[in-house]
Amino acid sequence: MRISGGVHRSRTLFTPKSDAVRPTSDKIRQAVFNMLNARGLVEGAVVIDAFCGTGALGLEALSQGAAYCTFFDKNKSSIALCRQNIELLKEEDQSQVYLRDATKMKPLPETIQPATLIFLDPPYRQELISKAVESLYENGWLSDEVYFVIETAKDEIVNCPLINILHEKFYGDTKIMLGGLK
Questions:
Q1: Number of Cβ within a 10 Å radius of residue 100
Q2: 93-145: per-residue pLDDT in tens?
Q3: 2 in any annotated domain
Q4: Phi and psi for 175 in degrees, rounded to 5?
Q5: What is the layout of strands, in order, in the sheet containing 163-171?
Q6: What is the number of domains present in the chain?
Q7: CA-CA distances (angstroms) from residue 111 to 65, 70, 95, 96, 107?
């Protein structure tokens, strides 16, 4: 798994040794960032990589010009792997990592700005997207102009009353959606 663009382009990230974490493929990540950059959504963005796993999506955003990224995962081994990748790329000053369930957020710390770009790539078919968005929204983590990148199984339906889906694209068995707040 490699960073596809920006200052860390072609750098190889540490990957999980088991199938418990399902990182977004390089091809899909590159397509997502092409879509985001075409809309000017990455440069200077304040990012949340919820359900971060390896941290590849948030680290890709930092590599391509995002200002800051907060990483969340409730799995200790995922958090350890994410921290290892942050250290590998020397992005500690632009990152914050929390061992936390994105569906059960605490209020936004005063030291962090509300996010303008959120990556939501939870385990498939567990209906976690709406819960995470509601928790992030209720606890002040979202800016008024936030955009969401959502990755699901191709046939999965996202029913979140706070999100307006603006764009949808399919890559094999994966569906990528771009949305904003309603």
A1: 17
A2: 999 999 999 999 999 999 999 999 999 999 999 999 999 999 999 999 999 99
A3: no
A4: -115, 130
A5: 95-99, 68-73, 46-50, 115-120, 142-153, 174-181, 163-171
A6: 1
A7: 20, 12, 12, 11, 11
